[in-house]
Amino acid sequence: MPLVSLELAADPAPLPSAAVQFLQAAMVRTAAWFARPGVVAGAGFLPSDYELVYRTLRTLRAADRHARTLCEWGSGFGAVAGLAAQLGYAVYGIEIDAELVAHSRALHQDFDLDVTVVQGSFVPEDYARRERLSDLDTRTVMSGPDAYAEMDMALSDFDIVFAYPWPTEEEQYRDMFRRRADYGAVLLTYSSEEGVRAYRKVPKRGL
Ligand SMILES: C[S@@+](CC[C@H](N)C(=O)[O-])C[C@H]1O[C@@H](n2cnc3c(N)ncnc32)[C@H](O)[C@@H]1O
Q1: Which residue's CA is minimally distant from atom 4 of ligand 1?
Q2: Could you tell me the CATH number of the domain that includes residue 138?
Q3: Ligand 1 pocket: which residues have CB below 6 Å?
Q4: Number of domains comprising the chain
Q5: CB atoms < 10 A from the CB of 136, how many?
Q6: Is 64 within the bounds of a domain?
Q7: N or C: which end of the chain has fewer CB atoms below 10 A?
Q8: How far apart are CA 203 and CA 207, in angstroms?
C-alpha cells in the first residue's frame, strides 16, 4: 500500500472575496484565542498557512474532479474545513478540544458553510491500540474514542484528508493514512518548513 507523492503547485490566481472574508474572520478569532490569559503557545492548536492550503486545494480540485469528501484531522478553528467547503467539497472536521469545536462551528455558521465538526479523535481506535509507534514524540492525542462513528463515516470514505502534524508525527500520520484510507485517496499535510505536501494511496505494483 504505497503512498506516492503528488506535485501540486499552489494556484496563483487571486482568492475570491468570499475566501478573503472568511479568512479575515478566522484570523481575527484565532488571534483572540491566542490572546487569552494563560494560553500556552506551541501546545495543541497551531494554525497552518491557510492561504497556501487554499491555493493547493484549489489546484487539487481542478485536477481531480471526482474527489468529493474531505476530512480535516485536528480541525482547530475549522479554517481549512471552511475553505474546503467554499471549494465545493463535502467537509468534515475532527477536533479533540471541545472549545475549538464550538469556535469552529460558530465560524462556519456565521459564513453559512455546511461543515460537520465532531468532537473526538481522528486516530482510529483500533489503530491506536495495535499499530502506533511507541517511541513517538507526539502532541497528537493517541488514545480515546474516535469520531468516525458519530459522523457515520469511516476513514476509508474520505477522498482527501488534510492535517498539520508536528514534524515528529509526520510518518505516523502517513502510516495511519496508508493503512486506513481508500485507494486513490489523497493526504495533504502542512509543515512550516516544507509547506503543503500531497500523497496518493495506490495499490502495490502488480496487484
Ligand atoms: C497543529 S493544530 C492544526 C489545526 C488546524 N488543522 C489548522 O491547520 O489550523 C492540531 C490540532 O489537532 C488537535 N488534535 C490533537 N490530537 C487530536 C486527535 N487525536 N484528534 C483530533 N484532534 C486532535 C489539536 O487540538 C489541534 O487543534
Answers
A1: 76
A2: 3.40.50.150
A3: 44-48, 72, 74-76, 79-80, 94-97, 100, 121-123, 140-141, 164
A4: 1
A5: 13
A6: yes
A7: C
A8: 7
